[in-house]
Amino acid sequence: MSTSTPTEREVAKKARKAGIASFIGTTIEWYDFYIYGTAAALVFGQVFFSDELSAGVGTLLAFVTLWAGFLARPIGGIIFGHLGDRIGRKNTLVITLIMMGFATVGIGLLPTYAQIGMWAPALLVFLRVVQGIAVGGEWGGAVLIASENAPKGKGILYSAFAQQGSPAGNLLATMAFFFLAAMPTPEFLLYGWRIPFIFSALLVIVGMIIRLKLEESDAMKAVLARKKTVKLPIGEVLRKHWVLVLLGAGALPLAQVTYFKNTFALSWATNELGYERGTFLSIIAIALVVQFIVQPFGAVLVSKIDMRKAMCLMIVPELFLMPAMFFAIRTETFAIAAIGMCLATIPHSMFYGAIAGLLARAFPANIRYSGLSAAYQLCSLIVGGGTPVLAQWILNSSGDVTGVAIAAAAYAAVSLVCTLLLLKRTGYDPKALSSAEQSDADELELERRDAAAAEIADAADDGAAARDATDPVVRTARAHVPA
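User: That's the sequence. What structure does it adopt?
Assistant: Structure tokens below.
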């Protein structure tokens, strides 16, 4: 029989509900976002651009349209970070899901370059920008709705629910194209690639049903109840916490190496090395299953030991394993390529499972959505969408993947330095409040003391007035006071 009090059970139930809803919602959003990257690697260069271009140039242009979504993500982070810090997390998550579904289904229905010429890539970029705005506003809210509803001391662990949506959505996207890969190329180019995009409509309906039943986070309820919302949250973030934003963005490049693995490597392996689409998609799928399994252990590890040590254990191996992955793929041996990709996946997946919780701890509750989104989307703007473009440009320029491997290792090095600097500012004891959380707690305690003191003073004034009203000397003196 459980010995927990009803209040504890209620908190635990709400936390699980918020975590599961966060996971399902982010899975759908990331599925929509990742199918674009897969399609860009496989077909967009041929479908939405002139067939007079070389295959390498067509792929590079397709990756540039992919980048457009990343360029738009900071806009989404600012807009929905503002709304999330002003009116709450839940409503913003409903809006972003609707936007993502509209854009994704729209891409699946777009005419090709052969049908409408330059309008095809122009409309493709527009819908990709809508996707970027949606996911830019989604991520921070999903992390916070899970972490802020978590039981005390388990915010980092519960933030991992939202992070699990990334490998789950990526795996769904990869499997969707895996099952279509057996189609003859003409049929695949004509309509096969469209099926995963149009299928998104069903997923969005499921996500909407779940999100409409979601409760607002407790931390945001407290901010609204105390009327502590900020008029312009992003202005407050940039004015007082810009160093944390830069360090947070600098910590995140390792979270973007998935675009080396899944987007660039897919194009390189199928176009340059001779892998069949289905073969390499199956390698990616195996790595994504590994990611889904090991990723939560990053949040567990960083919640148990000194955060600096935990992050070093997750980041340092990637300095060697990510470059090694490219050379494993270049052997054109299925088993070696799969092992190489799986080994490279483990460290950055664990890092991704932990980093959201660390970033959420860095900012005060009333600007947390804006601060978290600003850091993540700044990195996405500079690094995320540019990763396959950079990798393809290096490959086109040098004809060799060595430069790409070096760039991947550099991502890990930057993340290591900035993560350690971030922890130096926010605190590295997983069992203690971060500096921002402690500041929020101190402010709340001060307000409680002031309120208690005001109540005591009011009670004292009321008591004095009552005594005066019954004191005959005071009554006589008041009666002789001139009007």
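The radius of gyration is 26 Å.
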